[in-house]
Amino acid sequence: MESHRRLDWTGLCRFALRALEEGRAKSTFDAVLVDEIQDLRPVELRFLRALVGKSPERLALYGDAGQRLYAGGVTLSALGIDVRGRSHVLRLNYRTTEQIRRAADSILEAGAAVNDASTAARPRAPPAACTRSNQ
After folding, report:
1. pLDDT per position in the chain (135 positions), as tens?
2. Least C-beta-crowded within 10 Å: which of 30, 41, 59, 68?
């Protein structure tokens, strides 16, 4: 796509990230809040991190590794996003009833549609939120 001067979403994030890193663009955001981060690719997450510049506490990320669309294998810290001491695991699920979760887990245990190791471990992987701990 880039050869035709067109970019897909990931390419646009890569272009914007490069502009921020090279000083050709400046973020105007006070804070960045993102839900469903499990569906983002590494360059997209690096772009979001770059939007908050030298204030990583202004980046709030929310996601559920059990709902991942793309293969994992990358950590937030490898992308320059340090959540140590600022993350929180949600223990109560408000979106799915226990009956629906058990039915889905039984299908996964039977071997249907397991994409990676994190999906297989879903019953032990509750939704997680990464946010500031002092608020």
Report:
1. 455 678 999 999 999 999 999 999 999 999 999 999 988 999 999 999 999 999 989 999 998 876 766 666 788 899 999 988 888 887 777 777 888 888 888 887 775 444 444 444 444 444 444 444 444
2. 30
**Separation of alpha carbons 45 and 17, rounded Å:** 10
Beta bridge partners of 88: 129
Task: Answer yes or no: pTM beyond 0.85.
Answer: no
